[in-house]
């Protein structure tokens, strides 16, 4: 089993954090942003996990889910729901935010873009009253959401003043050694600048505010 | 769209009592009121819940690997297929075509819920393909034809004609 990562790619933080939190045995290989690890995808897709069967996983969330399941923690329905929300709802906004902050120097706009998402998390954490998103123990949802938010929260692009439950949760996950060291390895302590070369290679994210081109599958 | 797909999935699974769904937000994300707990939100989450309710866990994939592969394609369906713009279509079809080259189903040799939802999601793309394009993506159309004839899957969607014999062989000479 081999996990392929590249430095400065924020999606890789999820996979490495999940690997280190679960302690699953797996070789880690660093490749450059251009490397096509998954043979059937036209665009380079990293992180990627080469499974023992020879199949590739190219979705960071599926990789994290796999590590947790190998470690005996199957994803609950609540976990599934958070992972789906992360992929469909949070991720597009985050990518747009990172694009603005890293490539256009408009870090101040990130806060507006993500306010709604932070509110959703804050509400759930304060209502649930548990230290982690789905209960009393760290789940795959915590690792995925923490790693997704890490690039924007660790760079203070967002003030979490009014989101006290979210802030304590974020700090609680960040305090885990396996998460700390994953962040250090993937982002090299270079913050937003460290992601520049990765972001430059990504397609311009579709703005959710000015969607003039209708998606073909919308009805 | 997502609601019709869930209704078809319910029929495929043979669930007796159809569930009532609502939607939330601009993107009309499906919501299922759940008697045993808080409401479930999101098509993939609800689809996996329905599969478990129908006691058909094998449709979620075999072993940790199979289950991860199924979840990956379910995520692909809601993140890539459901909001793809014109420029993405060719890439999606090309990638899937290569992926399906040596596979019967998305998870390999076993039919799963990923085949069902991907079939629903890709239907509008296949409908728009010219015959020549269908031949270009021959593995995708083979898989698609297989799934649309899989007992009980098609439901709300019209069948798409897929020719099994090549007309355009020019590129091979």
Automatic annotation (TrEMBL), chain B:
<dbReference type="GO" id="GO:0005737">
    <property type="term" value="C:cytoplasm"/>
</dbReference>
<dbReference type="InterPro" id="IPR036282">
    <property type="entry name" value="Glutathione-S-Trfase_C_sf"/>
</dbReference>
<dbReference type="InterPro" id="IPR010987">
    <property type="entry name" value="Glutathione-S-Trfase_C-like"/>
</dbReference>
<protein>
    <recommendedName>
        <fullName>GST C-terminal domain-containing protein</fullName>
    </recommendedName>
</protein>
<feature type="domain" description="GST C-terminal">
    <location>
        <begin position="49"/>
        <end position="171"/>
    </location>
</feature>
<dbReference type="InterPro" id="IPR053836">
    <property type="entry name" value="Arc1-like_N"/>
</dbReference>
<dbReference type="GO" id="GO:0017101">
    <property type="term" value="C:aminoacyl-tRNA synthetase multienzyme complex"/>
</dbReference>
<dbReference type="GO" id="GO:0005634">
    <property type="term" value="C:nucleus"/>
</dbReference>
<dbReference type="InterPro" id="IPR053837">
    <property type="entry name" value="AIMP3/p18_C"/>
</dbReference>
<dbReference type="Pfam" id="PF21972">
    <property type="entry name" value="Arc1p_N_like"/>
</dbReference>
<dbReference type="GO" id="GO:0043517">
    <property type="term" value="P:positive regulation of DNA damage response, signal transduction by p53 class mediator"/>
</dbReference>
<dbReference type="InterPro" id="IPR042450">
    <property type="entry name" value="EEF1E1"/>
</dbReference>
């Amino acid at each position: 089993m081999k996990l392929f990562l590249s430095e400065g790619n924020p999606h890789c933080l999820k996979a490495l954090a999940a690997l280190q939190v679960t302690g699953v045995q797996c070789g880690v290989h660093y490749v450059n942003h251009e490397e096509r690890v998954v043979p059937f995808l036209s665009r380079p897709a990293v992180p990627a996990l080469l499974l023992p069967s020879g199949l590739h996983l190219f979705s960071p969330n599926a990789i994290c889910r796999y590590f947790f399941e190998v470690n005996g923690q199957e994803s609950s329905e609540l976990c599934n729901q958070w992972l789906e929300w992360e992929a469909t709802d949070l991720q597009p906004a985050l990518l747009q935010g990172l694009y603005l902050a890293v490539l256009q120097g408009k870090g101040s706009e990130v806060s507006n873009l993500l306010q709604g998402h932070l509110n959703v998390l804050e509400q759930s954490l304060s209502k649930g009253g548990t230290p982690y998103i789905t209960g009393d123990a760290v789940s795959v949802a915590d690792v995925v959401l923490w790693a997704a938010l890490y690039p924007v929260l660790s760079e203070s692009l967002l003030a979490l003043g009014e989101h006290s439950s979210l802030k304590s949760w974020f700090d609680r996950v960040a305090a885990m050694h396996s998460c700390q060291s994953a962040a250090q390895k993937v982002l090299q302590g270079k913050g937003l600048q460290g992601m520049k070369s990765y972001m430059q290679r990504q397609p311009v994210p579709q703005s959710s505010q000015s969607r003039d081109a209708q998606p073909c599958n919308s009805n | 769209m997502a609601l019709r797909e869930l209704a078809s999935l319910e029929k495929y699974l043979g669930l007796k009592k159809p569930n009532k769904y609502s939607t939330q937000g601009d993107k009309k994300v499906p919501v299922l009121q759940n008697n045993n707990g808080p409401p479930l939100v999101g098509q993939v989450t609800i689809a996996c819940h329905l599969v478990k309710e129908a006691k058909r866990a094998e449709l979620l994939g075999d072993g940790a690997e199979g289950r991860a592969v199924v979840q990956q394609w379910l995520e692909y369906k809601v993140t890539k297929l459901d909001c793809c713009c014109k420029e993405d279509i060719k890439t999606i079809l090309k990638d899937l075509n290569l992926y399906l080259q040596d596979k019967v189903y998305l998870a390999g040799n076993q039919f799963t819920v990923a085949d069902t939802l991907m079939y629903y999601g890709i239907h509008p793309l296949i409908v728009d393909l010219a015959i020549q394009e269908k031949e270009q993506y021959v593995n995708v159309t083979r898989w698609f034809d297989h799934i649309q004839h899989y007992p009980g899957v098609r439901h709300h969607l019209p069948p798409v004609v897929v020719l099994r014999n090549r007309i355009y062989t020019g590129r091979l000479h």
